[in-house]
Design a protein that fits this description.
2 domains; 8 strands; de novo design (two linked rop proteins); 7 helices; about 35% helix; about 240 residues
Length: about 240
Amino acid sequence: MPTYRDEAVVLRTHKLGEADRIVTLLTRYHGQIRAVAKGVRRTGSKIGSRLEPFMVADVQLFEGKNLDTVTQVESIGSYGSQITSDYAAYTVANVMVETAERLTGSDLSTQQYLLLVGALRSLANREHSANQILDSYLLRAMSVAGWAPNFVDCANCSAPGPHRGFVMQTGGVVCETCMPPGAAIIDQEVCSMLGALLAGEWQHVDSAPQQVSASASAIVMAYSQWHIDKRIKSLNHLERA
């Protein structure tokens, strides 16, 4: 059918002409799409504010040859203003949506959609530290994309853990037998923190010492960048304690 509806989160926007925008959306059932939103830059537009980055909406679109066209928008989650009012949250949200854009395409990406929406909601509501929400989101997004890290058993031979060596190429911790020269050595506290971030065990995450959180974040960033082909540009603006 030429007209369809879906839930979507706005990843980014580009100006088009004098009054229009091209919006990049991650939808619940149609994957990632690009569409024209006509007249949304005019002062009297009723839908312009609903199609800003980080907003979640129920959208109706008309299927086009190259770009679809947005014909109706109803707000589901108005997270944009809450996120942009805090610089730390804003920079984290930018990393999230850029990561989601890199990890998804036109294929069905419901898990990635739900994961991103949940992370943006948590960020907007200040439920946890912005950086820790990002670390948890990145680990989960990588897992959904097929790069699930292992923080318990050896990622190479499956020997039961705990283990201290971490190898990004292998996909997690490794035992002493499988540990290559130059492998990163991480404390058990950091390893437990990484596992808690991946599992969403927020009581553990929120109570972790700052040094442990910082070390875990460094592992998350390195692991994410290793598996995503192109560097996440918004990481340049990310504030880390």
